[in-house]
Amino acid sequence: MKTHTACPVIKTGVVTMLTFALLAVLAQPVGLALAGPPPPAPPTVWINMNDLVLSPGSTGVTEITVGNVNSLYGIDFKLKWPVGCLRVAGTKVELGPVFPAGSSFVAQNVVDNTAGEVHFGVSLSPPAAAFHGTGVVARITWEATCAVNTQISFAPNSVIMSTREGTPVTPMPYWIGWSTVTTATVMPITGQVLLQGRANHSGTSVFASEQSCPAVDLTAINVSSLPYVYALTNAAGNFVLNLDTHRTYRCITAFKQNYLVGQKDMPVGNLGSITLLGGDVNQDNCINIFDLTMIGSRYGSTDSRGDVNGDLTVNIYDLTIAAGNFGRCRPIIW
To answer: Is residue 117 included in any domain, yes or no?
Structure first.
């Protein structure tokens, strides 16, 4: 029998009263003190939307992607991988759409297949505006020369993200992801993750874990130290996870900032569709008065921590989504 965390039952009338009460608060003078905000979600930097599955002689592309960033103007990073069966095809890293070729200055673009290292640094150039949100900063094409099951990772403390003013993109530390390349026999897991209140469902992280559900809280860990395989959803919410058949993956977790986590026990084949419920802006795994207050305190701003539906403004849509889900807790069961 499946079980899940339950919040106290809240009657519809109470939700309505809470919503009107919060709207009344919003009408008060701007200087009114509301609950203090929790620490902002950290920017993320990871390698690839899906782990690569290559056969000897074949090639594949990884994407260096940033997420949840504000005022990004430049990035510098180093990648490392074990030398032997994997090499970068070509001599340069390709720019991603975050840094358009005509509006960027590449300061460093060095590929060393002998040492198993890449060093890449790029900045936007005036009059280009700083980047906000999630996007691909670089692409790398890899070639497998023999059977391989290895990991591509960022060198320790090598990721630097800068604003136009020459200060670090905050908050720190950054959440750092990695990627694996394998020629092992794989089992594809497919599915769709929809985001309540959105037409574009991209950017949800889907993790396969060898731990049983509910897995470790993904908002508080560095996944590079744990046995996860992950992918990102596309605009339609679709994803593919290629799982090594020599391992037993017991849980699939779908995570998106400001939404309740979704999970599936013992995943096999196509999981179908799941809709994540919006409103958990403080990421405490329940949608409650703290979330409504946090959205209310940011009403009319562009703060991503209150922008549930991703329209770049904290407004009545975000408030009503959260209020409609009042009392709901993670996980949403697939």
So the answer is: yes
